Amino acid sequence: MNHFGFTINKDNTIDYDNNDRSLANEVLSHEPSLYRCIQCGSCAGTCTAGSFTDYNFRKMHLLMRRGEIQHLRLAVEKCILCGKCQLICPRGVNTRNVIRQIRIALDKMN
Amino acid sequence: MKFDPFVLPFTVGLTFMISVLLYQYFRWYLLLSAKEKTIVRTNLFTKRTFFGFREIFSESLFHKKIFAKNRLLGYMHMSLAFGWFLLIIVGHLETSAYFGKAFEAPYVPIFLRFFQNEATHQTAQFGYWFVMDTILLFILSGVFLAWYKRKKAKKFGLGRATKHAIGDRIALTVLWFIFPLRLLAESITSILYGGGSYLTFGLGSLMEGTIANEHTFYFSWWAYSISLGLFFIFLPFSRYMHIPTEIGLIMLRNWGLKTEKNKMSCISQFELHSCSSCGICLDTCQLTTDLNSCYSQAPYLYKSVRNANLTDAKLNDCLMCGRCELSCVVGISNNNLRQSIRNKVSNKTESNLNYLNDIKLQPINKADVIYFAGCMSHLTPGIKRAMESIFKAASVNFSHLDQYESVCCGRPMMLAGMTKQALPLINKNKDLIAQSGAKILVTSCPICYKVFKEDYNLDIEVVHHTTYLQNLIDSGKLRLQKSEMKVVYHDPCELGRGSGIYEAPRQVIKRVASLKKTDYEKEQALCCGGSLANTILTSSERNILANAALKKMTNDKIHTVVTACPLCKKTFASAQKEIAIKDIAEIVEMNLIPMKVIRTKSKKVPSELLLNNNI
Amino acid sequence: MKETEKHILIVGAGPAGIEAAEHLSDLGYQISIVEKDEAIGGKLNNWHQLFPDHRPAKEVLSHLVNKLPKNVKFYLNSTVTKTIKEENLFNVEINGKTKIQCDSILLTVGFDVFDARIKEEYGYGIYDNVVTSADLEHIFNQNNKILTTQGKIPKKIAFINCVGSRDEKVGNLYCSSVCCVTGVKQAIEAKQMAPDAEVFMFYMDIRMYGRFYEDLYLEAQEKYHVQFIRGRLSEVAELQDGSLLLKADDTLAGCPIKVHADLVVLLIGFVPAASCNSLSKMLNIECAKDGFFAPCDVHIDRNSTGTEGIYMAGACTGPKNLEASLADARSAALKIHYHLVHGKATNLINELS
Q1: What pTM value is reported for the model?
Q2: Mean pLDDT of chain B
């Protein structure tokens, strides 16, 4: 199964303890509502970009929180900030700010 | 040669200030585009320049607009501005009267009492002394009020006074000292060496033999000069930059320049620095009144830009609803400036929308009218369904631009400052619109409407569905009945203040329901809180804004609110259950009298059948 | 143990009210029941079969109703309009005119179902073949078949979990507890009635918390091949032919999924009864932030209210299944009995503190 269009050439396991989760922590500190996410998938189901491409907000931030950020930049570039995800989220996660904070954190990393 | 070392702080300060100002204004001048330069050149020698001067008098000096807001506030600003202006002008007249020359060193009129014993002509002394003392008293009353305002802002019609950064605080303190120090210096001079009228001589008399002596005399002039010098030095780095800048702004505006929403142009810089942090806009901001959040509004944003300590939250915690623009006495276009700053910050943000080139959408049928529901409308399908029924009832040859999937109009990205990154969306939609061959683009979302109108550069007509409905009704294509419903209309920010459409929705509603008045209508309408421009608010904060707005609009008397925006509808509906929220298309559709037989559908909700059959 | 002098007023003649009435009457009290509808039995009247064993709802209803003694006085089509407490007695006004006096009041006003029109993106009230679980029970009762609103047998049926529950966007953060098992039960029934149909369930979680519930889940998968898709439904769209297009994220597969359906069933949750708010103001009892009556103590005493002499039981104290409502009613009956025998409430809290 493709992740964001690329085949992963590593062990098929998330090595949680050795993954660097500092980017996720950075994003979470700026947008703590993300903690509430239960991965229901409403966001990805309604996503405008998600109906045209493999962009999936739910999966993207889940992998980020696990520390799997190899494909984060390529993914987050696809969001068009339409806001449907935020309007539908049953937990009240501020999804658009999560996107912005991911972009800011990625820029800081470079 | 009239000189004394004590004039140095003043002179150095003044020179410094003028240099910095010239430097800054030159840098901004460089921002003028060729087109803007042409506009200025064309209008330079027309009566617009006269209008500009007139406005400088009425606003920069007399502060007419502030007077309209609150007399005490207006008087305070006027006394300081106009008073100081008079002091300088009359001071110069006085100087040339005493010394017979048109021009003296610039510091002489300011420190005239010190130098006046060297005067060669003694023309109308008492007259001048009386006038100058009166002007000084006039200014001092303003200084007192300014100090008093920081304690009791409410008396001035303000909910609160603006919080100040350190540079502003120093400049403010120094400013407050200037005129009392002048009073002190002139009073001591008056009793020791003559000159002065009721105010300065009077005060001087009180100090005779005690405070007033040669040392304090000299010391007070030094103090006065230093306070002036310090003020000048701090002016370009504080909110008082607005004093000279506003003059430039008024002229540029009268010559026809306007701010843009995606660029910090020359006039944008002038506007940004013309904000005096007066604080009048703070009370109109719902973040202040409903959330007690007072850190990100325009005065604070501009202060942060000036002091180069802008944070992400400060820039993005704004509904961009436009309410503050209404109350700004300088007429600063806060939304344009904020969006331009966001543009600058997000300029390099990476975006990859190339996938839009390869997407497969449902085919767009050719039609006269193309209907764009917008992203949000997929979550409020009631609006889309109502529009379909209305189109059919009016026999309109229409097709959907986004029946099952929307390509976003692009405005949410642009509001976040990613203007050029949104281009692929715009191009894709323009392509699809062209495919339909339609002459009219109708959209039920004001956010999309605004971007279609302002940024898409379409050849075809673009209308919001409220205008379209009005046209259909006026041309007799729809037959409607008037229901008993009592409703209140909520002007969406993007449709009302954003696009100037206030009447069409009201005319439409009046045909089908009883439209009640509210205190928050048209330009004064409140924001629902759903704003895409604000990415910082939490969902519970948005609910607070929505509920506060609904309460103010309905006064707990009306139970249905009609709006013309799917985002407003969803935001209001998510925040509470008591008040029914309907889109204008929905209430029109509810009250259609069919012109021909159309497929009738059971409108009864299944559970309504259920409740009547309990056993 | 005859206490024929004391009179208890029960507000709400649903299962909890009836069960409490029966036990209290047995203990010798005079019972009056006020019911807003024209018939007793509450929501139990509307259901077709109950979980976990598909037992006909009417069976349980008639059992409850038949147990009721004849001397219970009913006020149907009635609501309580005023209450004044005078020492240990309550002067209650019904329908603005009838006045009665009682020694204790038991609130069993039950619940309402979530109005699915609020969840506009699912199209209830907009598209024809979107119904609620409550509607489906009605359809089952009417026809003993599963039918679309056009009267046809559907080929693809989708059940949608958590409609109106666990959803900040409709103001209901709580879980309504019984919708999952209701959905699985209905999915099984649907397959029984339309064996050739494909049945889907779109869920965030499958909460089969009660006894024998998990067996239903297994049965649904193994025997009836119900397809469980873990993804909360995002949108429903209606196609030209009247069929429905569902959009969700198949979270376990890791990508969005689109499915067509002929019938969409929204598993709606509980909302507090409309009268909870007005009763709480009238009787000065607290509602918790979810809108249901607040418990006196979550573990030890869920039947007492803040006002001595007024008790509560059943769904008005929070979403619960039928057997829990009945158990709650019995518990309240016992508390009321203690109160009236000893002249005071048990007040365990004060004893503990």
Answers
A1: 0.90
A2: 90
